Amino acid sequence: MKKPIQVSNQGVTLDTSRRNFLKLSGVGLAVAGLTLIGCDDNDDFQIIEESKYDLGTGDVGVLNYAYALEQLEADFYTKVVNNFYTGISSIEKEVFTDLYHHEVIHRDFFKAAISGATDHVLPKLEFQYPNVNFNDRNSVLATAKALEDTGVAAYNGAGKYITNPAYLVIAGKIVSVEARHASAIRNLINPGSADFSGDDVIDANGLDLAKEPKDIVMAAGAFIKTPFTWKERGIN
Q1: Which SUPFAM superfamilies match (predicted)?
Q2: CATH code, domain carrying 116
Q3: Sign of CA dihedral 19, 22, 24, 26
């Protein structure tokens, strides 16, 4: 039986006095007041072994996939803002703080929404950053760029697997925020250039790239310490 899940961002406090495209208004499009309809009972979530989880099938699998990626981004930006790199500018600090809040909202939204719709929710994951120097500007920005570009391509690639129109609308709203994140990071790396929508992430039709879940997990695999599978999409 399906049940409606109401999710809001009440209790989250952000500074909304600065009106730029990264502010809460952008996040509000993605998470404030959204309603999810509970997943069908036949959307399976499987425990493959004691410490390894399968994301599941159908829409449950896609939602858990998005939740895994949002956990990664939220974890990364938490580490960034808890110990800003040496010499960070006020603008960079502002951008990273905004991105931190946004990704935490996205992560908590997926956790609440999936938990309210099914018992089969991906647990909290652990992450590692073996090649990231959090005290080095170039290292942090390069990693943020990789994560944001990957996040946009992930949502674009997974959209075709969503069957519930309500979920597709939500994914579309969240990926629009992720694309703004990617542009903001690219502008910090190369201010005033066209890199904010570079040819490496925009195709010949002027659209953001879309990548299959298997390729996304392979690209992000170095950061993911907790193993999981998504057999429906060839991730073993």
Answers
A1: Ferritin-like
A2: 1.20.1260.10
A3: positive
